[in-house]
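Structure tokens please, single chain.
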Amino acid sequence: MIMIMPGASAAGGVNQGAATFNRLTPADYEKLQRESILLNAVSPVVFTQAQAISGAGNWRTRIQGVSTDYQTIRDWPVDQGTFFTSPICAARGRSPFSAARWRRRYFRRRPIGQQMQIRDVPFIVMGVLRSKGQGAGGQDADDIILVPFTTAQGRLSVGSA
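Here you go.
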């Protein structure tokens, strides 16, 4: 896996750190996808943390806007439902794909087809990923919601990488 991050910026001679200056665009993603002969899959990742609300309560969680290739890149199988499709991404579809923690903790019944809200944007859950548990950095890999990157950019107003 190769990760390409936006560059750093400097203000008043002080380095602001990696990913403080967004230089990557959807056109960059499309060009990599179209012209690369060595890459099997390409996905932008638009990220933020936000308040998510379901019938069982609300919580602050990680939101990642990704393409359909993200599931292949991260080798993350579907446990219930389906992963979103390219037409949903192109249409800025509002169907999130959540990880396993959501099924157990934040929905009283089967989450597929249930409505939830991220910030002030309504979503319908179309799938649940298989549980991955704790990641190498100690972070809970299952406490995340995936949405189409076009939706994250256009509806959730977050930074991209």
